[in-house]
Amino acid sequence: MFHPLVTQLKFARSEFERCMQGVSSEEALRRFLPMNCLSWIVGHLASQEHYLWVQRAQGKDIAPDLQNLVGFGQPASTPEWDEMWTLWHKITDEADFFLSSLSTEMLGKHLSWQGLEAREDIGTSLLRNIFHYWFHMGEAHAIRQMLGHKNLPGFVGNMQTVRYSA
Known about the structure:
Blueprint: H1 4-20, H2 25-28, H3 38-58, H4 66-70, H5 81-99, E1 112-113, E2 116-117, H6 122-146
Antiparallel strand pairs: 1-2
Helix pairs in contact: 1-6, 3-5, 3-6
């Protein structure tokens, strides 16, 4: 069983995938300045998960060039749509190896990468990751509206698997 915050991350991921359904490869590369394109958003969220849950948490680097392509602070790019989704799936699958092991006690610990301890603990990083998804889903919805897409999915979707109970 996953920690409740991991369940929330997994729900945010599923909503992210739902948000992007119906986007063509050509549309995914279109930019409405100053926003990035949809393919960049997919890669960007993969980059954050890679950094947090694959590099820091597991000491692995399975996408060494991703940070330079779509990482925070990098210049705008229009990476290939299918490639970004392939990397996103590969990275989130790898991240789940770590995330599935999280306990409440572990959330207060700090991860490190290349000898540097993270400023935020695991729990705060997990919250940041969840909120990052929701931020970019709003942006992706705006881009899809500008692309002329109709009947976009409503947010938030079916929460039966993530219901709160005390």
